[in-house]
Structures are given as C-alpha cells and as structure tokens.
Amino acid sequence: MSVDTLDLLARDSGLLWHPYASLDAGARYSVAAARGARITLEDGQGRSREVIDGMASWWSVVHGYGNRVLDAAAHAQIDKFSHVMFGGLTHEPAVELAERLVAMAPGNLQHVFLADSGSISVEVALKLALQYQDACGKPARQRFLALRGGYHGDTFAAMGICDPVDGMHAAFAPLSRQQVFLPRPPAAQRTASGDWVFGADELERWEAQARGIAAEHAGELAGIVCEPVLQGAGGMHIYPPRVLRVLREIADKHELLLIVDEIATGFGRTGKLFAVEWAQVDPDIMCVGKALTGGYLSLAAMMCTPKVAGVLGSGSGSSGSALLHGPTFMGNPLACAVACASLDLLTGPGDPRAASAQWHAQVARLERGLRAALEPARELAGVKDVRVLGGVGVIQLHEPVRVADVTRVAVENGAWVRPFRDLVYVMPPYVCTDDELRVLGSALTAAVGEVHGG
C-alpha cells in the first residue's frame, strides 16, 4: 500500500494544483478511507493513520463520512436520474429543497436560486442587488458596502467584496470593482454562560464610523454584504450581534439591500440555525452552501424576500425581469435530493429551531466539548487567544502558524487540521463524540506547544 501511495503522491505533484498552493506543492497525505468523523491518511512511507477530521472537509461534512441516510438518498436519486437541465424544466428534489429552505430561513426569504457553489451564490446575490436597484430607477447604485476582514469566495465579484488589503485576493485588486469598506467590527467572545463580551466603547466608535461611511457613499451603493457574527477565512473573527442590527438600520435608512453570507455559518454551526438570528435581524438576501448537502456534493442557494423578487419581476428597469444567471448544473437533482436528506438529519421531526432539533443538541455538545478540550492551550506561551462559538474552536497564536509542522504533529496525535494565518482551528463534524473532541483538543494543544512553544 505504501508503494502505491508514494506513487500517487508523486503523480499528484506537478500535475494538480491544490488550494492556494504552488503547482509543485503536491500533497503530504492521500486519503484511503473515510467514515464518521474520521479519515484514514497514508503518507507514502508505509504509515497509515486514522485521524479525526477537525475540518469537516472545510466545514461541510457535518453528518460525517459514509452517512447511511445520505448514501441512500444519493443511490435512490441516481436510480431515477442524476441530472437534467433546469431551463424550462423542474423536478421534485429541487422544488422540495426550495420549500424546505423557505420554511427554515429567517425572516421572509421566500424565493430561491440554486447555484453551483458558495462563491456563485454570492455572485448571483450581487447581480440581483444591482438589477434590483436598476429596476427601482437607481442605476447609479453600482457598488457594495462590505466589512474589512470579510471573505466571500474566489470568483471575481465575490473577490471584490473580500478584504482588499489583508484578504487573499489583493493581487487581483486592479481587476475587481472597487467597493466601499467598513472597518472590521470589534472582537467579541461568547462565554460558556451565554453572555456576549466585547468592548462597548470600541463598538460605539465602530458604529459611528459605519454610519458615517454609509451616509457618504449611499447614493452609489446597492447593498451591504457581511458574514454574520463570524468572519471565517478572514480570521475566524467573532463580532457582536449588535453589528448586524446597525447594518440593518443603515440598509433601511439608505434603501440598501442587506445580504448575509451564511455559507460557512448556516445550518447551526454558530449555535443558531442561521447566524443572523443572533441579532434577530431579517436579511433581504441570504446565501447558503457548504453544509447544505452534508458535504456530499457541491450545491448552494441564494434566497431573497418578495420585496426584492417583486421589484425585479416588474421588468421596469433596463435589465428586464430575468435574473441574469443560469449555471449548467443549476438545481442538480442528485445534489438536491441529498440536500433534502441532509436537512432531515439536521432538523429531525418538528421545528428546526427547537431545542429538540438534532443540530441544536449536536452543536451545543460540540461547544461544551471544544471549550473543555481547547482550554489547556490557553496556558501555552505561543498562544494569544482561545475562543469558541458553537461548533467552531480557535487557537490564535502570537505569530504566523508554521503550517506544515503543526499539521504533521497534529496528525501524529490523531487529528487532521488545516491552519492558516495565525490560527489553528477546528470546525468538526457534528457527529464527533466527546472522546473525539478530547482527541482534537489534545492534538491541537500538542502541535501548538511543540511547534510554537509551550
């Protein structure tokens, strides 16, 4: 097996690009199997290790690998048809999924656009906002108000609303439309007792700046875009729910659309079904993805209110009434069928927001387990902060993380992680057991201590 793995790793290097890596970077491990919250890694040197996937494959495999319910849903749909075009046609999985999303969503989000991926759902949301303003007789509103520290995807319009300086897309700034950015919101912590802790004076200063910047640019803005409460790839930054209420007030005052990017935070990850619910704020547009299919297939959705859809549908603007986007694999039946099964697993019977909902109990257990498991890391000299929100656990360092070394030691201690910036973090599958959470915590603590100083 080790010879085959070594050959596979060699064949990969120089052939395949990996995310945010050079062509010759290759991969350190190959995956031989995956089941539950665990993946089996082989390193080409005859070593095989079963490790806990602290990444849930970039936050998507919430129900674990090889889930029988999702497997059955995929098999059943394949036996019928795996794909059909969505132009002029429809099918039961797409309609059922849209109905389910509307029933779950916060506020009055009643209309659904099914997209290929999270980035594409953001692109569609931005297009919709521009067409909306045009249909309202305000074609000059061509820019967006976004937060520093935000990340919304790798496609061009999405890149434009990511952090323009500290984000991952600064090299492409000349090719993206220049948007308007608010300062990064002040940091917050949610304590084990459920309290939100943050600097009140700092938040007051941020609010004054936000209102001033918005007023200055209001006539050219179509909407406000944010990741609610948790900025993910921009630094696992948690901010006070009050920020969302301020953004809602700004949007209402200046007739902007509030667009929330719930791709990483949706479906329970932060402890609410959707993170915007921490502020009891209703968005005009919402994007979801990642956990939507339980990590089985790429699928996302953009949802909007009747106010938005109705104005666009009037056709009074120069762009007409059509929402100008249409992916080849839009509404893919296989992905939609698996997504419906995934929502079944998340909610269980009854109200998806009830304390008895499956996701609610799972994420509450993750939060308790991660708080206990990561607490020892707080004593390490190299650690700046430890924070937990729902099923997200973060160890922040005083220096940029040495990714290869931390990954190696974590694997040796039974965990797969993908650190970045100054962060060693986990967003594990919801099905992780208490023992698996303890292993994650001890592995991360060991890795940080060995590599960055105990």
From TrEMBL:
Kindly list the places in or outside the cell where this protein is found, as annotated in its UniProt entry.
Cytoplasm
Q: Which residues carry this modification: N6-(pyridoxal phosphate)lysine?
A: 290
- InterPro entries, sorted: Aminotrans_3 (IPR005814), Aminotrans_3_PPA_site (IPR049704), BioA (IPR005815), PyrdxlP-dep_Trfase (IPR015424), PyrdxlP-dep_Trfase_major (IPR015421), PyrdxlP-dep_Trfase_small (IPR015422)
Give start-end ranges for the coiled-coil region(s): none
Q: Name one Pfam family in it.
A: Aminotran_3
> Origin, by domain of life?
Bacteria
SUPFAM superfamilies registered for this protein in UniProt: PLP-dependent transferases (SSF53383)
Q: Where is this site: Participates in the substrate recognition with KAPA and in a stacking interaction with the adenine ring of SAM?
A: 20
* Residues reported to bind substrate: 58, 151, 290, 326, 418
Q: What EC number(s) would the UniProt record show?
A: 2.6.1.62
Which GO-annotated molecular functions does the record name?
Answer: adenosylmethionine-8-amino-7-oxononanoate transaminase activity
Task: Kindly tell me the pathway this chain contributes to.
Answer: Cofactor biosynthesis; biotin biosynthesis; 7,8-diaminononanoate from 8-amino-7-oxononanoate (SAM route): step 1/1
The cofactor named in the record is: pyridoxal 5'-phosphate
Query: Catalytic activity annotated for this protein?
Result: (8S)-8-amino-7-oxononanoate + S-adenosyl-L-methionine = S-adenosyl-4-methylsulfanyl-2-oxobutanoate + (7R,8S)-7,8-diammoniononanoate
Keyword Protease assigned: no
**Residues the entry annotates as binding pyridoxal 5'-phosphate:** 118-119, 261, 327-328
The answer to whether the entry has keyword Amino-acid biosynthesis is no
Class in the EC hierarchy, top level: transferase
- Using the UniProt record, give the first listed, main subcellular location: cytoplasm
Question: Which Gene3D superfamilies would you find in this protein's record?
Answer: Aspartate Aminotransferase, domain 1 (3.90.1150.10), Type I PLP-dependent aspartate aminotransferase-like (Major domain) (3.40.640.10)
Keyword list (alphabetical) reads:
Aminotransferase, Biotin biosynthesis, Cytoplasm, Pyridoxal phosphate, S-adenosyl-L-methionine, Transferase
The similarity comment for this entry is: Belongs to the class-III pyridoxal-phosphate-dependent aminotransferase family. BioA subfamily.
What does the subunit comment say?
A: Homodimer.
What is the purpose of this protein?
Catalyzes the transfer of the alpha-amino group from S-adenosyl-L-methionine (SAM) to 7-keto-8-aminopelargonic acid (KAPA) to form 7,8-diaminopelargonic acid (DAPA). It is the only aminotransferase known to utilize SAM as an amino donor.
What protein am I looking at?
Answer: Adenosylmethionine-8-amino-7-oxononanoate aminotransferase
Report the source organism: Paeniglutamicibacter kerguelensis
